[in-house]
Design goal:
Helix 4 (about 100-110) links the parallel strand 4 (about 90-95) and strand 5 (about 110-115). Helix content is about 40%, strand content about 15%. By secondary structure, the protein is α/β, with parallel strands linked by helices.
């Protein structure tokens, strides 16, 4: 850099590297910070165990760093030995059985990075093989397992967050709400569901054999029991049940018997977009669903029956309090940690690391394409393909286990 260079010189023009639009120096510094954090976390070479073939291209794009791309298809011991030799780490998909990989990594003295989808993921379901715009790489634990402190929990308990980052988080939160973004961004328009004047409670269904339930749920562990608990707590409320899209699509377990639904819920919204239900409800009650986090962003009351990552910071009513948490965090501090510092984002157009703002730009573009006739046809074809794979290969995989 030349002597006397002043990055704040108003004569300089700063361009967004993702679409070449002029941006402010402050935005340029945010983008640079995102890229540096991504590079630091991808610097160690990754040796992957148990990452399914269809995810490998995306994982490579996220974790290809200065010491080389990830290696796949290794047995746990071979991965740990290769990681030790390369001063790298073993990488696993957190929701799979990782015990052997973690045991071998400990024996070899190498770190384990646990991968999962991020909280701003895509337009479309992961179970339908839609690639992710964000991943989390957690070397402490994983965000949905409260048994050990994840990197996200450590951030929330210990990080000193600068005011500029909190202000950025506030802008991000406002945009998320204004544009109606959710994790998967699926579903049709929804009309009035909760009658005027009624206290609406949204009950989000979950996949009942999902790792977040197996590891993070409390006494309430099924969708039917969640509805029963809400009805017992709020006998006069208007309860809206939104089944999980993976369950509706037939990919995963968690369906509730129709008779029980009629008895416990006042309305069931199957195909509608969940973002359109938030303004109609006053509260959300959930086991561990990300819906609780999305509801917090929109100012709703949130009650947790389990121990999701957003519980324990004085923002929610927690029916299963966690002894390790307890620090008070503001909503925008939670957003800063969960949506800016914790995940890795990648721009699918340029291939560059990015931040959540660029990810939202790409999600908005994908939503527009998905709403067009060609996009709706592509979604139907993808669903048919995914459903056939789950129904044919799923039972085979369970038998092999």
């Amino acid at each position: 850099m030349e002597a006397g260079f002043d990055p704040f010189d108003p004569a300089l023009a700063w361009l967004d590297p993702y679409d070449r639009r002029p941006i402010s120096i402050d935005r340029a510094l945010e983008i640079a910070g995102d890229a540096i954090r991504h590079r630091e976390r991808a610097a160690r070479r990754s040796f992957a165990v148990g990452v399914t073939r269809w995810k490998r291209a995306a994982v490579t794009a996220f974790l290809d760093g200065p010491n080389g791309p990830p290696r796949f298809g290794l047995a746990p011991r071979a991965a740990a030995q290769a990681a030790a030799k390369a001063h790298g780490r073993v990488v696993v998909w957190a929701s799979r059985d990782t015990r052997a990989a973690e045991r071998e990594a400990r024996a070899a003295g190498v770190a384990v990075g646990r991968l999962e989808d991020g909280f701003l993921r895509s337009v479309g379901l992961g179970a339908a093989f839609t690639p992710a715009l964000s991943l989390v790489l957690d070397e402490g634990g994983v965000y949905y397992d409260p048994s050990s402190p994840s990197d996200l929990e450590t951030l929330l308990r210990e990080a000193d967050l600068p005011e500029a980052l909190i202000a950025r988080a506030a802008r991000l939160r406002e945009r998320l709400v204004a544009e109606g973004h959710t994790k998967y961004n699926v579903g049709d328009a929804v009309g009035r569901v909760v009658p005027e004047g009624r206290f609406g409670v949204l009950a989000p269904g979950q996949v009942e054999d999902d790792a977040s339930i197996l590891r993070g749920a409390g006494a309430v562990r099924t969708n039917r029991d969640l509805l029963a608990a809400i009805r017992a707590r709020r006998p006069d409320a208007f309860i809206v049940y939104k089944p999980h899209p993976d369950v509706v699509a037939g990919y995963r377990r968690g369906a509730v018997d129709d008779a029980e639904l009629k008895r416990l819920a006042d309305a069931v919204v199957v195909d509608g977009a969940i973002a359109e239900l938030y303004p109609q409800c006053r509260a959300v009650e959930t086991m561990t669903s990300l819906t609780g986090f999305e509801a917090l962003l929109r100012g709703l009351e949130v009650t947790t029956h389990g121990q999701p990552f957003y519980a324990g910071w004085d923002l929610t009513e927690d029916l299963a309090p966690h002894p390790r948490r307890g620090r008070t965090r503001s909503l925008d501090e939670l957003v800063a940690c969960a949506l800016i510092l914790y995940p890795l984002y990648r721009d699918p157009v340029s291939g560059l690391p990015c931040g959540p703002e660029t990810a939202l730009d790409r999600i908005a573009e994908a939503r527009a394409r998905a709403a067009a006739p060609a996009g709706r046809l592509a979604a139907r074809l993808r669903h048919a393909y995914a459903l056939s794979r789950h129904r044919l290969l799923g039972p085979i995989g369970r038998l092999l286990k």
